């Protein structure tokens, strides 16, 4: 199974400052069709997960442009350019290249400093 | 708009069974695959099962294989998860999530809590 390792697991950030979360995969996530099926999800306290980004860098409709995804192969990053209060929650990366099983990272808890 | 509404959770004794449902609306249910994903209290996300749109192709996590069965009724826009031989470690919030044409988990339900305890 593909293992996704996120860092850091806890991320205290000052409002208005940038934040960055790393997701490293045990295997390359490039699929045979050339796409890379790495997604990022946000789970605010008490809510269901919500997909923010799919295929490394495609932002979902309605997701603020302060969120961006990048990376390739085995190393991926979610960046928030300026953290706002509504960004508090847990962020997960997920791979859909080598399935089953679909696997998620452990989660990174973002809080306001 | 897409809506997924789970139900059927509750408290159940170890070894017993439970069936979860997920009613979908706002999209053509019969066109898309559907997943179940669970989250144990205070823990991360764990994929449970996937069923393709026609109901004939299914995949399971090793942790539930042989005990859980995913199914769907496209005439009722409903996804199911039959859970047998439940264990304490199956305690979790269970989410249904929609599969897009080429990507996964684009929409999620609100979840239903299953507690396995004597």
Please characterize this protein's 3D structure.
The complex is a heterodimer of chains A (113) and B (118). Chain A is mostly beta strands. In chain A, 0% of the residues lie in helices and 48% in strands. Chain A contains no helices and eleven strands. In chain A, strand 9 and strand 10 (103-104) form a beta hairpin. Chain A starts with a strand and ends with a strand. Chain B is mainly β and 118 residues long. Helix content of chain B is 0%, strand content 49%. Chain B has strands at residues 3-7, 10-12, 18-25, 34-39, 45-51, 58-60, 68-73, 78-83, 92-98, 107-108, 112-116. In chain B, strands 2, 4, 5, 6, 9, 10 and 11 form a seven-stranded mixed sheet that branches. A four-stranded antiparallel sheet of chain B has the order 1-3-8-7, with no helix packed on it. The N and C termini of chain B lie far apart (40 Å). The model of chain B has no long low-confidence stretch (mean pLDDT 97). Classes of the chains: A mainly beta (113), B mainly beta (118). Chains A and B meet through strand 4, strand 5, strand 9 and strand 10 of A and strand 5 and strand 10 of B.
Q: How do the strands and helices of this protein lay out in sequence?
A:
The complex is a heterodimer of chains A (113) and B (118).
Chain A: E1 4-7, E2 10-13, E3 19-25, E4 38-43, E5 50-54, E6 58-59, E7 67-72, E8 75-80, E9 89-95, E10 103-104, E11 108-112
Parallel strand pairs in A: 2-11
Antiparallel strand pairs in A: 1-3, 3-8, 4-5, 4-9, 5-6, 7-8, 9-10, 9-11
Chain B: E1 3-7, E2 10-12, E3 18-25, E4 34-39, E5 45-51, E6 58-60, E7 68-73, E8 78-83, E9 92-98, E10 107-108, E11 112-116
Parallel strand pairs in B: 2-11
Antiparallel strand pairs in B: 1-3, 3-8, 4-5, 4-9, 5-6, 7-8, 9-10, 9-11
């Amino acid at each position: 199974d593909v293992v996704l390792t996120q860092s850091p697991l806890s991320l205290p950030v000052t409002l208005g400052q940038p934040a960055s979360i790393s997701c490293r995969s045990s295997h390359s996530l490039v699929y045979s069709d050339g796409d890379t099926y790495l997604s990022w999800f946000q789970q605010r306290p008490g809510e269901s997960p919500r997909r923010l980004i799919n295929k490394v860098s495609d932002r979902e409709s309605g997701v603020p442009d302060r969120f961006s995804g990048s990376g390739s192969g085995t190393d991926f990053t979610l960046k928030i350019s300026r953290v706002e209060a509504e960004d508090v929650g847990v962020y997960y990366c997920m791979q859909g290249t080598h399935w089953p099983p679909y696997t998620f990272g452990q989660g990174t808890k973002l809080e306001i400093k | 708009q897409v809506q997924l509404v789970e139900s059927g959770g509750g408290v159940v004794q170890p070894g017993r069974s439970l069936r979860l449902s997920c009613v979908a609306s706002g999209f053509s249910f019969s066109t898309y695959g559907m997943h179940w994903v669970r989250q144990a209290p205070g823990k991360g996300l764990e994929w449970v099962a996937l069923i393709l749109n026609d109901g004939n192709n299914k995949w399971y996590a090793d942790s539930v294989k042989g005990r859980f069965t995913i199914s769907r009724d496209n005439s009722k826009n409903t996804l199911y998860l039959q859970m047998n031989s439940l264990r304490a470690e199956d305690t979790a919030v269970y989410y249904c999530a929609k599969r897009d044409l080429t990507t996964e988990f684009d929409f999620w339900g609100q979840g239903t809590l299953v507690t396995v305890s004597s």
